[in-house]
Automatic annotation (TrEMBL):
Protein's UniProt name: Protogenin B-like
Organism of provenance: Sinocyclocheilus rhinocerous
Coiled-coil regions, chain positions: none
Compartments in which it is found: Membrane
Topology relative to the membrane: Single-pass membrane protein
Domain annotation Ig-like: ranges: 1-75, 88-168, 180-264
Pfam family, one: I-set
Record's compositionally biased regions (Low complexity): 917-928
Amino acid sequence: VTLGSVARFFCAVSGSAVISWELNQRSLPLDSDRITVLPNGVLQIHDVTMRDAGNYRCLATNMASRVRSREAELTIIPASGPRPLMKPHIIAGPQNISAGLRQSVVLECLAEGNPRPLVSWSRADSKPIDVSGARVLGNGNLIISAVKAHHSGTYLCRATTPGTRNYSIAPGNLAVLVPPTLVEKPESQTRPRAGTARFSCQAEGTPVPRITWFKNGQMIHSNGRTKMYNNKLVITQIIPEDDAFYQCQAENSQGSVVSTSRLIVVLSEDRPSAPRNIHAETISSSAILLAWERPQYNADKVIAYSIHYMKSEGLNNEEYQAVIGNDTTNHIVDDLEPARNYTFYIVAYMPMGASRMSEQVTQHTLEDVPLRTPELSLTSRSPTDILVSWQPLPPKLSRGRVSAYRLSYRTATDEQVISVELPVPSENCTQYLLQGLQPDTIYLIRMSASTRVGWSQPSAWNSHRTPKTSSATVPPAPNLELEPLNCTSVTVRWHPAPSDAVLQGYKLSFHPDGQSEDSLLQLPPHDHQHAITGLNPRVKYHVKLLAFSANGDGYQAHHTVNTPGCPSAPNRRLAALPSPDHIHATANSSSAVSLSWGRPAFSSGKHVSYSVRYGPLSPSDAATVRYVQISEQTVTVTGLRPNTRYEFAVRLHMDQMSSPWSASVYQRTLLEAPSSPPRSVRVSLIEDDTALVSWKQPDQPDLSVTHYTVLYASQSSWLAGEWQVLQREGEPGLPWNFWNIMEFLKGLFQTFESQGILYFFVQISASNQEGDGPFSSTVELRLTSETHLGKNNPRHAEKTAFIDGLYHMDEKPMTGVIVGVCIALSCIFLCIFILLTKSTTHRNSASSKMIGQVRNDVMRSAASSANQQQAENAEVLLPMTRTHFIDAKGGTNLMINHAGPIMSDAQSKRKKWSMLNNNQKSNGNKSKVSNRDKCF
């Protein structure tokens, strides 16, 4: 230092110690007012002289040990003449200090000047300095002992040249750390079920205390019904389990304080019980159908229901509520996020209070197409490749698990697009190398992402020029990272890739999406970070960076980044983005509907796209909800089911934002004329002059049939093309794949007896408002002379077979019946003989009884088998009436029920030998089924 100026040494130690100084390894005398030692270890020497020169060191001493520092030399530079005048200058001003209550603080102020300046202190807030416990040490250092909270503030050290207005100021902040104290404590409350409780807790302290809430000693997390904000605890939809003690704890680095309050939940005696059997069913990617049953007790007093739902995963999830009337027990909750789990519960309300919470149910919304695609980063490693990399989409944008990416590219001068589909395995796919490209060529690259629902709209084209082919070694592309700093700034960071090239610098360029490149910024080679400022909020920017050397420009790294919106100036378009309106749906055919809508006026001149959601109106068909991405205002949805009511909704996408779904419109597809004939046509003779014809609807789902046309004719009339016509009304409520329909054809024998006709033919077709369907194949009914002679013995056709396009009655040969009966009797006698041989004399009578029982069972089984065979031939018949049908004319005792004709006892006896033969076959089949069951 210069002779006559000031010198300063600082010694810092860890722990509590007393600091002293030594000069040339001897204790430094403090008898002069020129020398000041501060409690924080600072040594100040004013008006230094030649004898102050030497080696200085500090000595730290406490009860445990004594430590000396290294020596520091003070050299005095002699003055060449009188000291010149110098304005005041503060060498060491006050530092920002944090101190606890009742601690001592040192505010240093060391100034020099010629003449020596005067040092004074003041507060920045113009408040007077509390002189109690405050003193000045040395030439202007302020010492405050046992600081209190009111000592906090900014202190100003002012060095002034005497007799002038020349001065210098240095500020320093003193923060007194104060333990927290509660200025507002939570109060105990009494609330009814389903009410709301609010607890308030305000605390003071330095630093600002952190408020934590506890329930019966357990920390409370903000979630669902419990919310914490502005140091308040709010509990909505109170339930009996909320009756507890609640603690508010205020805590900072200086300590903590706790206050306790009580919440008492009042229950009504005649309150309703909770809603029962809560069931949730997914309808679409944004809607879930909730259904329940009314409370078991006091259900007649319920005036409303409240539905509560929130996301199932994560903390701090907000709970939403929907209130509906008591006239329904189902509700569709919409505006949900796709591919998310939601938890639901329901509360019933009455004038005296609310019920308990119902059981909670969790349901998952369906996936949706991704809202947008990842931002692409393009880098070339050689003149013939481009490395495309991206970051996985967050769940809010992917709206489900991304199953594949589609990468499309082309040259700037070629319209032919090459696409590569990249399936995503269990781990995310984040890069792909395009190879075999042309050097020094501009390529346009874009990407689209897919979930199980479908593909998103492709991203905008990103351009990248492949490097030139050169024998010289140029620097590789740097590893580039972009991070939005705020709504108008982006931080660019990079790391040079390993290379032998000597870098001379970097070239950085950026431009908004859709605009030409700006001028290059050239940066020095030692820079690895740069801030781009002056950007526009909510705009996509392209940033390109390359390194260059003496051999030329290196390979380029190309990334994109979106600037966020400014909090101080929120984007009003986000809140004002409306849904499409004037939506019209028109049915074009039985499988297509045309949809059109209006475009918002504010979106003119901007690129917009739309999502169309459609599906059957019935909640049971929720899995068939589909989505279409389109940029036009009209679309024709195809592949629909005939005569089905569909629901349509449209959503607008613009500037990476999406509007809510529009109001739904409904349209039913047109009817479809039958394209196939009725199925399973059967004809059975049930009386001498009456036949029963049965059939199933055509094999077309969702087909509406208004009537059936039955054509029947004798053999001669059939050959002449002359048919009798009978119409039967359709059954619109019947499932197309289950029920049989039947009709009686009466008076057949009177019609054809005079002609001696033995064959009878039937054809059936289905019709509706759109037209007539084709006729079925011709079914033949054979009428024998035995049929005419046995008028009092009604017959039933046992079996039909399809031969040469016709169904024929299967007449079983008598020889087969006799052989079958003989085999059955032989088996029975053989079993009796074995049983008699093995039985003892004691059981002879029992054996005889068993033989009789076996015979009865065999005969009973044969009769049952015959009836069963009749039911199989007739399949499932839809009766004209649900009760048994009996011919009132007295010609027969035949009965028909929902399973078809039932044989009388006389018929059963006439056919018992045939039935016994059939029973043997039936028993054989049952044995196979039994063995199969055991295998499982």
